[in-house]
Design brief:
Distance between the termini: 39 Å
Number of domains: 1
Number of strands: 6
Structural class: alpha+beta
Shape: globular
Length: 152
């Protein structure tokens, strides 16, 4: 099975509204970072699609994280990024995120500046030419439900 069909299957597990945001967000990041290597982790808690200059996980600068109740754009080294508009959320040691109620948030000028800063912050430069590709890094056999539980 190709990586593209595997990723499509991972996304299809989610509620259609969440899946739509995930697909569109992934496409927008791919367009913005055409030479990036996409690292896909279908983990216990969420589906994470990281983007970096190489296949090394530690070099991914951002990821689209898909949860049962929403999608986020996660910046691996977000704490170090300039964020004058206060768009980044989270209080971890290094990572920060932006919630994506719609994929169009990625095109917001402030978010675009964060993406540019994350790429510039990368210790390994992204290729100037060429085309990126997708690598399926892990698939957890046990996973949390990909769709929210019906409300009582």
């Amino acid at each position: 099975m190709s990586a593209a069909s595997q990723v499509a299957g991972f996304i299809a597990k989610f509620d259609p509204a969440i899946a739509k945001i995930a697909r569109a967000s992934r496409a927008r990041i791919r367009k913005r970072l055409p030479t990036a290597v996409e690292l896909v982790y279908d983990n216990y808690n969420a589906l994470a699609m990281g983007f970096g200059p190489t296949e090394r996980t530690t070099e991914a600068v951002l990821s689209v994280a898909v949860w049962a109740r929403g999608v986020t754009l996660y910046f691996t080294y977000g704490k170090a990024l300039p964020d004058p508009e206060g768009l980044l959320e989270g209080a971890g040691n290094q990572g920060r995120f932006v919630r994506l109620p719609s994929a169009s948030v990625i095109d917001d000028p402030g978010v675009a500046r964060l993406i540019t800063a994350a790429v510039a912050h990368s210790k390994v430069p992204f290729a100037a030419t060429g085309r990126g590709y997708t690598v399926i890094k892990s698939i957890s056999t046990k996973q949390r439900p990909r769709r929210p539980s019906p409300k009582a």
